[in-house]
Specification:
Elements: H1 2-12, E1 40-45, H2 59-65, E2 73-75, E3 81-83, E4 86-92, E5 95-100, H3 114-127, E6 138-141, E7 146-150, H4 158-161, E8 188-193, E9 199-203, E10 216-221, H5 225-233, E11 239-241, H6 245-252, E12 258-273, H7 280-289, H8 292-298, E13 303-305, H9 326-335, E14 339-340, E15 346-348, E16 351-352, E17 354-359, H10 365-379, E18 382-387, H11 395-398, E19 403-409, H12 417-423, H13 438-449, H14 453-469, E20 473-486, E21 489-490, E22 508-509
Helix pairs in contact: 7-9, 13-14
GO molecular function, one term: peptide transmembrane transporter activity
Organism: Lacrimispora algidixylanolytica
GO cellular component, one term: periplasmic space
């Protein structure tokens, strides 16, 4: 097992010794001739932003990271929706009443109005298919600060949707086509934008929610993790996220220079057990064999083992699963009539117990596949691996697998419905392993319209617990959000599990 991981990790990560020593370039050096006494934080980003339009695709994630755009609601560090540009929201059946924060202004001094918010939501729905439902709603302005959204049917997840960074509120009258210019509400404004390259922001001097502590920030496009490592070692940047395990190990050795923050985030590694091809005993034996804790250890801090699809701090993340038990797994297989052959594999009627594990190579699933193959081999199950480029167009669509690996964001915006509906509802795209449970379907239907937060959590926990107990899925690990900062840098959303936050008015540096 360790030898396999040494090869896998050796090809995926550069070791710290390759990068050399760092120099003593001062933190916060200003770009392009700006005064050196200004507080300018320098950051590396692995994504090349091509347009500033926050409503298009996932662009809003990055304008949010830059501290330029804001939404009506915000996800806090505990994955709870909190008001931001909105002051409050309440529902009466399918009609939501939303009151805006009276202090909210755009960076040009114009107020955020109900009419402008409605225009933003409609535009986002028109150009971003993931929010196309916003083109179907009925909107009405009530007064200077209040408007309503009629969703047609009861939809309790609306404020969670409104916290999505793609639904940022911009001044559509003064942002042009939003490709290279953007007037929004955040604590920073774009001062220089190079599509596919460096982006600079400066303090929004008219920020409605308090003066930003920084004068500005520079985001450099660095797609390779090794480049970011070298840049921070050389004093050319001050912070970045998505730190590799090798780099993290080096930072831990230099506590006098760096602060490393690691928290479980929202992107989940999981597998689907195909009930159409595996009986209950084999599925349970598989789940009793896969050791998430060992996998997390071998992946060296880049993931955190998980029991269910949601973080344990969430009210809807309170589920349990049996601990790995190889002896119990073997007993289940032997109870089905399997015996160990001379090669160490179980067989019955002269046929080796062999299962087909399908995966794709992104998000460390190639490493996970190799680890699972090795763990199942140790218990006596032969595993054949198949790597596909497009899982949605192959094994997810066809069901041609015994175990199917997948990775997706499980907690999209502080509510469990999205993931549950995608993976456990009848006919859902990732319920492709034959899971059927009438009681679960009734609970999912109830979850769709339940407005009480505590009841929603209770329903979600019941649904996920059933999927675990019936060995329909195996939830392995949540990717960690790993942030490194030079000592003295603080407030870069390092404790927030969502990837789309970084700069805020509270971001600071000594």
């Amino acid at each position: 097992m360790k030898k396999i991981l040494a090869v896998l990790l050796g090809t995926g990560f550069m070791t710290a010794s390759l990068y050399g020593c760092h120099n003593s370039t001062a933190v916060g050096t200003a770009p392009k001739g700006q005064a050196s006494d200004k507080k300018i934080i320098r950051v590396s980003e692995s994504f090349a932003l091509q347009t500033l339009d926050p409503h298009l695709d996932y662009q809003g994630w990055y304008t949010s990271i830059y501290g330029v755009t804001e939404t009506l609601f915000h996800m806090n560090d505990q994955s709870t929706v909190t008001p931001l540009l909105a002051e409050s929201a309440s529902a009466n059946g399918a009609v939501w009443s939303i009151r805006l924060n009276e202090k909210a202004f755009f960076s040009n001094g114009d107020p955020v109005t109900p009419d402008m918010v409605i225009r933003n939501l409609k535009e986002a729905g028109e150009i971003n298919f993931r929010f196309s439902n916003f083109t179907k709603y009925t909107y009405a302005v009530v007064d200077k600060y209040t408007f309503t959204i009629d969703t047609g049917t009861i939809y309790p997840m609306l404020i969670n949707d409104l916290a999505s960074p793609e639904l940022a509120i911009a001044d559509l009258d003064h942002s042009g086509d939003k490709k290279t210019g953007l007037v929004a509400t955040g604590p920073f404004v774009i001062s220089s934008f190079e599509p596919g390259g460096t982006i600079e922001v400066a303090r929004n001097e008219q920020y409605w929610n308090g003066k930003a502590k920084l004068d500005g920030a520079v985001f450099y496009y660095m797609p390779e993790a090794g480049t970011s490592f070298l840049a921070i070692q050389n004093g050319e940047i001050d912070t970045y996220t998505s730190v590799t395990s090798d780099a993290a190990e080096q930072y831990r050795k230099e506590p006098e220079t760096y602060t490393l923050t690691t928290i479980p985030a929202t992107r989940l590694q999981f597998y689907i057990l195909n009930e159409n091809r595996m009986n209950a005993s084999l599925r349970k034996a598989t789940n009793l064999t896969i050791d998430s804790k060992a996998i997390g250890a071998y992946l060296n801090g880049t993931v955190s083992e998980t029991v269910g699809p949601f973080g344990p701090s969430a009210s809807y993340g309170k589920v349990t699963k049996a601990k790995p038990d190889v002896k119990a797994a073997k007993a289940l297989l032997e109870g089905d009539g399997y015996t160990i052959n001379s090669d160490g594999y179980y067989e019955k009627d002269g046929k080796v117990l062999s299962i087909h594990l399908a995966y794709y190579a992104a998000r460390s699933l190639d490493t996970l596949a190799a680890l699972m193959q090795e763990q199942l081999k140790e218990v006596g199950i032969h595993v054949v691996l198949t790597c596909e480029e497009d899982p949605d167009g192959t094994y997810i669509a066809t069901g041609d697998f015994d175990i199917g690996l997948f990775c997706m964001i499980s907690d999209k915006a502080g509510d469990p419905y999205y993931f549950i509906n995608c993976t456990l509802a009848d006919g859902a795209p990732y319920n492709c392993g034959g899971f059927k449970n009438d009681q679960v379907q009734l609970m999912i239907k109830e979850l769709e319209t339940e407005t009480d937060t505590n009841k929603r959590a209770q329903l979600a926990n019941q649904v996920i617990q059933t999927a675990i107990d019936e060995d329909a899925f195996g939830y392995v690990a949540l990717f960690n959000k790993i942030t490194v900062t030079r000592n003295g840098v603080k407030g870069v959303a390092e404790n927030n599990p969502f990837d789309f936050y970084f700069l805020s008015a509270d971001t600071d540096m000594d």
